Amino acid sequence: MRTSIATVCLSGTLEEKMLACAKAGFDGIEIFEQDLLVSPMSPEEVRALAARLGLTLDLFQPFRDFEGVEPQLLQANLHRAEAKFKLMTRLGMDMMLLCSNVGTATINDDELFVSQIRQLADLAAGYGIRIAYEALAWGTYVNTYQHSWEIARQVDRENVGICLDSFHILSRGDDPEAIAQIPGEKIFFVQLADAPVLSMDILSWSRHYRVFPGQGGFKLDEFLGAIARSGYAGIISLEIFNDVFRQSNVERTAVDGLRSLNLLQSQTAALLDAQGIGSALALQALPGGQKANGFDFTEIRTEDPEPVARLLAQLGFEFRGQHRRKPVQLFSAGGARIIINSQRSRGVTAAVSGFGVQVPDPAAAGERAVQLLARPVPRQHLRNEADLPGFNAPDNTEVFFGATGDAGGWEAEFGVHESGAAAEHPALIQCIDHLNLAQPWQSFDESVLFYTSVLNLQALPGTEVPSPMGLVRSQVLATGDNAVRLALNIVPHGLEEAIDRNHEYPEHIAVRTGDIITLARNAVADGMDFLHIPANYYEDLAARFDLEPQLLQTLQELNLLYDRDEHGEFLHFYTETIGNMFFEVVERRDGYDGYGAPNAPIRLAAQFERNRWSRH
Amino acid sequence: MRTSIATVCLSGTLEEKMLACAKAGFDGIEIFEQDLLVSPMSPEEVRALAARLGLTLDLFQPFRDFEGVEPQLLQANLHRAEAKFKLMTRLGMDMMLLCSNVGTATINDDELFVSQIRQLADLAAGYGIRIAYEALAWGTYVNTYQHSWEIARQVDRENVGICLDSFHILSRGDDPEAIAQIPGEKIFFVQLADAPVLSMDILSWSRHYRVFPGQGGFKLDEFLGAIARSGYAGIISLEIFNDVFRQSNVERTAVDGLRSLNLLQSQTAALLDAQGIGSALALQALPGGQKANGFDFTEIRTEDPEPVARLLAQLGFEFRGQHRRKPVQLFSAGGARIIINSQRSRGVTAAVSGFGVQVPDPAAAGERAVQLLARPVPRQHLRNEADLPGFNAPDNTEVFFGATGDAGGWEAEFGVHESGAAAEHPALIQCIDHLNLAQPWQSFDESVLFYTSVLNLQALPGTEVPSPMGLVRSQVLATGDNAVRLALNIVPHGLEEAIDRNHEYPEHIAVRTGDIITLARNAVADGMDFLHIPANYYEDLAARFDLEPQLLQTLQELNLLYDRDEHGEFLHFYTETIGNMFFEVVERRDGYDGYGAPNAPIRLAAQFERNRWSRH
Fold first, then answer.
1. What pTM was estimated for this model as a whole?
2. A616 has pLDDT over 50
3. pLDDT tens sequence across A71-113
4. CB contact under 8 A, B605 and A200
5. Has A191 been labeled as part of a binding site?
6. Under a CB-based contact definition with an 8 Å cutoff, are residues B587 and B512 in contact?
7. Topology of A294-615 in CATH?
8. Under which EC number(s) is this enzyme classified (chains A, B) (predicted)?
């Protein structure tokens, strides 16, 4: 599939945008006119730079407010168009996007639209230029693809076809199915955009909140399937207006965009295969996504391993061994394995730096990640050491693929020869329940797409948690069976400043137990520091739930939090923060599947309060 | 008027919120339950702290999802309520907010609502507690104030009345007029919130975008007028859910809130006076707002005055004198006066630090500012020096009031004894046209309220300008006759980083001329650095406007930008940036009244491009 992207999706100068698109691997770009206008590069320089970078210049856009006007304005519009045709000739471009009139149209008459666009087409033909007519969702008179196609059909010129933009069609709730009936050669261009499900006016939604395919709520595989069935064999491009992308690193946004197209073409190929339909789009399939069976390990980076090691021991973890060659220690409890890594960690007090998941075929999972443009972690193993495929997530977490049930491979490097159950007493901890990872606000959508596509996780509905310094946006990603769960948090700027002197929001590792009360008592006996929960919380628990007084007292005594849903009960506690991380211990009773969301504000306020005092 | 504010409006811990409310000058607060829940303070401590601070605890809120439920759930709800009544008793509070059910109501039956709320009332009566029933705009069955009043009326208990929240009424487009017919003593509480005009679902709008009165689009003077006419004599409170306020400095937000109430009560008093209606609310009027006649001066702070002085000379400004006592220089051209201040400016390359406006009665303007809680600038004058009332705006700009036509007062301190026209040649510059001031994102709404209330300016509709690093939000504030105009800009984080090494977005002073071409030619002859405008811009001008080729050539030669509207033409240029500021020169032909908005992206991109190279 030939891929393209509109320059308006990206930040920076036109030159920076072009370099980033080429580096990411796009085949071409759409020139958003304003990007050219503000550029010191001449059209000839842009053309030459594109040629050197191997980028095609696919679409000049947008040309606005042309048709449906009085004769005098039509002449001014044709004058304006001809100037742009001359400019396009200098750029070496042959296709212009014509948006349906949203401003100056005063006459609602299809025949007039047809005759005026025909005049434009004949003028364009003299320059060898084709016109792709697009119905904007808020066009004054033309705002559906059926209508734009009807007009283009009646214009009846070889150099006039339509442009289809998924946003303009799906935002209105229109059915894309009829696209399949349009002759593919009369579809001149296809632009894709996804969008979160928001109830707001379509114009604001479009101008600020578009996202790359897979980051929103539209069914773009079905949309692209309909395009494919029309016989369209051209370019698939991205046109995203997004307030955050406009401010983000241009190279990363370009990679994020191409990743979204690689995923989408694979999904669409699968859809068409299932229906037994071929496509002229040459859709490329990815190696199949694998369901992870669970966490393989979680890695903490720290200059000084002692405080973390002590905390792990208090929680019931056993030391399993020191890496034979590196300053790396392995701890485990039940199926939960935690690595403390002190390599290249000068100045790092403690931070969650990576994790592994277990999949049936790590090599295939790695190959899929590569095709999804994941950035490989630089290899640090010797020839006879385990070689787990590893990648940097957008939040800089390192993500590795290990083989299901094959821990022996890398555990042997820690001198561990028996798998599991080396402890004297059975561990109260069963496994890693979930990881909570902080996300920079600029890369939240990118992270969600990365984890859902590369780790094959599903995104659950997002929530917002009030804290003393703003709302924390939270998004859970999980395998269908919850064997692997990640909670991504975006933290308001003010909270970062308040909660940590490095302006970083702490991440945490949640481990699961079947007996949180015994585990907490053991930890108390070992002198562990719990995050202190205020007394008012327990009074409110008593008002909300019909709890045994004895249980309530135990909860308060041990700083345990409590939640209940229609399935069961949830008990959990938090440790004090070390550097930039802390632990949570959870017990899930009778199929409770949430994360204690009502308690999250309590935790944030307690950490804020704690930090406030340590700041004084 | 007795004022209150809900703790949910503010950032920080409950203690910090209470301290900030007392310091700002509120009479009382509403306790938002979650703020208490997450606090380590016991109810007794909260009560004692409030007493010490002189704050009344006016409303305990919210109590949710009570009425319209099955008998078993009713019992649980009564249990929950009684726990809260006991808590309120410990807090010494006697009024609870009951929100109409949005979640658990399953039976749509007014009689059932009445009988269940009556049970709640009778339980509350035992604790001396009153219930204020509020219709949420998205209540399942009860969502209008008429409906909540009808139910409260039928409940027919002395301790049950209603709470009226302007957001829930005005967001639905409901007419508040009928409030005047409700007996004032049955209105137990009034909450005010404004909101920008947005088309989105009401719940999201309410939870994220509420603002203080005067910062949005609701007609709150009419709303409060209807409240007053009901005979209500109680507390007027603020309940604002705003994503930005939650992250902002708690003391500033509290002041911002009380300022909004002081302005609103004055506006409402004027409205009622005009209608010849008295009010039990004891509304306090402010000294009347005065229309400024123009800018008195603009002040630039800089460690080294030479680069700015040179630029001013190139633009045609004359040096008028040095302050007799301080390192401060005065320049003027026509009616434009610019002060270069080198006091306390170590490390400041150049920044717009303040400005004065001329009003008929500066002392009264200063008194109004004080009553609007503006922070006075520390006085720096001696007894025999001019004493202009001065205040710090939220963006830290110093704002002064001078007397109309009375420049001699302070000019004399610069050894200037003749007013104006000291230059050999008539100045091409006529006056200061407008100032463009950068705003921190946290204080944009606060700034708009400050400048509109303290300087008595009107806010025009806002716009957004694309830049290479994100959208710049822009808001013009002006007197009705445009004698004083300010353009406030919020700059995306990424742009700040890109455009300036101090992460500050440059501000600018725009001066007006009647002959920009001669002025620009003079500046070229004097060797001035212009901001360079790319050639592509002039090609686009030729496509969009039917310009004389000679004029187009002159524009391009002089780096002038051009715009036209239905009134007339606009020509302008920008200087290079010095430190954190630059100048713009504008010529308005035939009543053009805008700011060349289509050219703003060109300017931003050119500055970005310029900076990019200076960074390399």
1. 0.92
2. no
3. 999 999 999 999 999 999 999 999 999 999 999 988 999 999 9
4. no
5. yes
6. yes
7. 2,3-Dihydroxybiphenyl 1,2-Dioxygenase; domain 1 (3.10.180)
8. 4.2.1.118
